[in-house]
Write the structure tokens for this entry.
Amino acid sequence: MTRPFAPGYRIPPDLLLRAYASGVFPMGESAEDREIFWVRPETRGVIPLDGFHMPRSLRKVIRQGRFDIRFNTDFAGVMEGCAEPSEGRHNTWINGPIREAYSALHDRGYCHSVEAWREDRLVGGLYGVTLGRAFFGESMFSREADASKACLAALVERLRERGFVLLDTQFTTEHLKRFGAVDIPRRKYETLLEDALRDEARFD
């Protein structure tokens, strides 16, 4: 279910947090279109933190220390990377209002980036929103093979360590299903979300 707003719509950070707390998130049609849509899917994608699957090849990459994994050192760079055209994705939904709103949440400590660096270059990353004990994944990118996968593995490890109970991927893809992502009905998701919001976990 989606609801459009007028072009040029700005998303107040408090409104955005209330939306996540009620199971709703915004998207844009393209980088050039300033219209925002609020989305509340009938089926939601999640990665159960106790059911995360790490492929053997990724274990090898992590053991080798191929990437320097960092948190929140270049949030703007991660958003920029996520908005870049890539193979199979020529347009992005990350438009001006989206960038502005999530940057504001980052400044307030509610939005975080996980980054893969190699030889002091940002080569992959992901970002998402935290609220209560939930992490709402927004987007990821790779400029080198396995970079975003290593970020996802680091994210799951951090969420487990710090008491998070819900990793929301919004939708599932064949790529995410390789790591244990599953689709659940909206009602079940809202129950999990309600439980996750009863307490607080710290990402930093």
Notes: The domain at 43-196 is CATH 3.40.630.70 (Aminopeptidase). DSSP finds seven helices and ten strands in the chain.
